[in-house]
Amino acid sequence: MRRLALLAAPALAMLALPGAAFAHPKLLSSNPAPNTAVAKPTKLTLTFSEELVGPLSGIELVMTGMPDMANHAPMPIKGFKSVASGKVLTVTLPRALPAGTYNLKWHAVAGDQHRIEGQYAFTVR
Ligand SMILES: [Cu+2]
């Protein structure tokens, strides 16, 4: 029994390692931050907990309302460029986002190749 227990401890520690080395990316912070109102941005940044696989990580952005038309049908925003470098995904917009409400859906892939998704809303005033 004692011998088994001694063997089991290192084996369990090794089992735990791959999870630590290939953790799923979590969104740690973003600019604009979720549920905040900001002046018209030309750039969005999302910072994750893990190094991203660039080409597999990105966002979709839709406008969900304008000052005169709250909660309109989602209007996709196109033409932006997103670049993942290390743990940060930077989205450069062709022009400043107009006033309105937005929903941002992100997808992020780190070392284990699993696609992790999330979303948040923000307002441009
Ligand atoms: Cu995974």
TrEMBL record:
Residues annotated as domain CopC: 24-124
Name listed for the protein in its UniProt record: Copper resistance protein CopC
NCBIfam families referenced in this protein's UniProt entry, alphabetically: copper_CopC
Segment forming the signal sequence: 1-23
GO CC entries: periplasmic space
Family per record: Belongs to the CopC family.
InterPro entries xrefs: CopC-like (IPR047685), CopC_dom (IPR007348), Cu-Rt/internalin_Ig-like (IPR014755), Ig_E-set (IPR014756)
Localization, UniProt: Periplasm
